[in-house]
Amino acid sequence: MITSKKQQITEHLRTRIEGGEFDPPADAGPDGSDGGKLPTEEELGAEYDASRNTIRNAIEVLVNEGLLERRQGSGTYVRRGRVLTYDASPSGYQPDAAHFVRHYAERLREESGIEQVRQELDVRLLPAHKRVARRLGLEVGAAVIRRRHIHILDGSPWWFKDSFYPADIAEGTELMNPVNIDRGTIKLLAELGHEQVGYTDTIRARMPNPAEQRRLELGPGVPVIVHARTANSARRPIRLTVTIFPADRNELLYDLTGEVSDFTEHAT
User: Fold this and answer.
1) How much is the pLDDT for 237?
2) What values do phi and psi take at 155, rounded to 5?
3) What Gene Ontology terms describe what this protein does at the molecular function level (predicted)?
4) What pLDDT is stored for residue 100 in this prediction?
């Protein structure tokens, strides 16, 4: 099979990138701006005996694959491969609990070298769109309270989470306040007479919409992981939490020790 000059250069650069030739130093910032810089287009053109346009097109393929990123006025950099683990296990998931946020921040600093962990919280009363209404057992357009958390690590948005509550549960309660709830919303809901007895999860991957791309500062070609958890009391759904993770920097952990699983172990 005959391959074009651009394809040959793309494949060779991909091999060099995956082999770590252009990796940034360990102490580089999370955006890779302190290292991992590719040679200039002119230098690569001389190295591969190719035109600048051919080099530019080859680099564009790797940018779209999420391996490289262009920085205006600076050059082209290898994207750092920092991947953080999000604990979605029953014991690890405590939405809105201030102590959980503090503990999570401490763990990130210790295990991943993250220095600054903060979140932005926004609370709004909204009409439920079709997907939210279906999950919460409501009519489309019914009032819901949305609590949105955007998690920012070392200045970069890492994921965001929308928690939706039926208005008849949330109105007039602490869920309306734009602050973390120290004891967590699971305990708060129980105090309000809506004890959580179980939940269902769905996980899927898709390409981000324009708003998600801007909010998470995603590069071209980077998909997102959509983790949706519907919490139920003995009588009804009481909370829907939808978390959007950039797939290039996050992984989900489920520790099901002691849990019955329908999955068969398989090699990957």
Assistant:
1) 98
2) 85, -5
3) DNA binding; DNA-binding transcription factor activity
4) 54
Helices 52-64 and 41-48, axial angle in degrees (round to 10): 110
* Architecture (CATH level 2) of domain 5-78: Orthogonal Bundle (1.10)
Across all residues in the chain, what is the average pLDDT? 84
Domain 84-253, what architecture? Answer: 3-Layer(aba) Sandwich (3.40)
Q: What is the pTM of this model?
A: 0.73
* Mean pLDDT confidence for 169-183: 92
Residues 6+ apart with CB under 8 A from 67: 14, 17, 18, 78, 79
Q: For residue 83, which of 255, 221, 267, 252 has the smallest C-alpha distance?
A: 252
pLDDT digits (tens, 9 = 90+) for 228-259: 999 999 999 999 999 999 998 888 888 877 65
CATH 1.10.10.10 residue ranges for the chain: 5-78
Q: CA nearest 156: which of 27, 254, 33, 37?
A: 33
Long-range contacts for 68-71 (Cβ within 8 Å, ≥24 apart)? Answer: 68/17, 68/38, 69/32, 69/219, 71/33
Phi first, then psi: what are they for 178, rounded to 5°?
-80, 55
Calpha distance 24→114 (Å, rounded): 16
User: In this structure, are residues 55 and 76 in contact, taking their beta carbons and an 8 Å threshold?
Assistant: no
Identify the three-state secondary structure at position 219: coil
Q: Quickly count: other Cβ atoms within 10 Å of residue 89's Cβ.
A: 14
- Residue that has been written with the tokens 């009409």 in this structure: 127
Residue range(s) of every CATH 3.40.1410.10 domain in the chain: 84-253
